[in-house]
């Protein structure tokens, strides 16, 4: 007869053989942000940074050069926009509006500058290389893998927990639900 598992232990996912067997299983957080919340935050942040860049470039650069110049400029400005906000507060304008925050896996505090830089660079680098023919294709494949990691993780098919994009995995961060920031008329 097999001994029952102690009540306090976590169940390993079926794919646990893909991870280090000596590593303890990672607890699944109940407060992880939904993929839709994450997408809304990303759309808002990309518009906050990208829209002004494209508007300025449309007025100052020939349209034939726009596809080459816009992606690396947007990527660089996304880094400048996201790294300090994520490092200090775990939230950008988009994340505040969507009711999510980025936290370090081991502390539940904002991730700090190194992790915020890794996270933002993992997201921004594929944008920056989009105009380069072969690298643009690789970047497109990266985006498919990044999206799949969130949704496959939501189905618990990946060994290191649900709803973690590649940039979360590399930076060892989680995106959690928070209360959205109140509007100016809220009191």
3D architecture notes:
Helix content is 55%, strand content 5%. By secondary structure, it is mainly alpha-helical. The protein has one domain (33-174). A two-stranded antiparallel sheet has the order 1-2.
What's the layout of helices and strands?
Elements: H1 35-60, H2 63-89, H3 93-98, E1 100-104, H4 113-128, H5 133-154, H6 166-171, E2 173-177
Antiparallel strand pairs: 1-2
Helix pairs in contact: 1-2, 2-4
Shape: globular
- How far apart lie the N and C ends? 61 Å
How confident is the prediction overall: mean pLDDT?
Answer: 79
- Spatial order of the strands in the main sheet? 1-2
Helix count equals 6
Low-confidence stretches: 1-25
Features:
two-stranded antiparallel sheet, 6 helices, disordered N terminus, mainly alpha, 187 residues, 2 strands
Brief summary of the model shown:
The chain has 187 residues and is mainly alpha-helical.
């Amino acid at each position: 007869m097999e001994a029952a598992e102690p009540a306090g232990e976590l169940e390993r996912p079926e794919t646990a053989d893909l991870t280090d067997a000596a590593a303890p299983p990672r607890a699944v957080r109940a407060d992880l942000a939904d993929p839709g919340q994450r997408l809304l935050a990303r759309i808002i942040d990309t518009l906050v940074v990208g829209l002004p860049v494209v508007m300025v470039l449309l007025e100052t650069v020939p349209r034939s050069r726009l596809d080459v110049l816009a992606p690396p400029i947007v990527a660089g400005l996304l880094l400048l926009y996201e790294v300090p906000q994520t490092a200090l507060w775990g939230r950008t304008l988009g994340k505040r509006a969507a009711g999510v925050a980025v936290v370090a896996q081991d502390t539940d505090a904002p991730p700090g500058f190194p992790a915020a830089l890794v996270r933002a660079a993992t997201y921004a680098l594929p944008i920056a290389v989009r105009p380069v023919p072969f690298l643009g294709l690789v970047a497109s494949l990266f985006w498919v893998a990044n999206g799949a990691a969130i949704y496959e993780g939501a189905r618990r098919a990946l060994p290191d927990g649900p709803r973690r994009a590649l940039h979360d995995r590399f930076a060892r961060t989680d995106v959690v639900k928070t209360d959205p920031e109140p509007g100016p008329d809220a009191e």
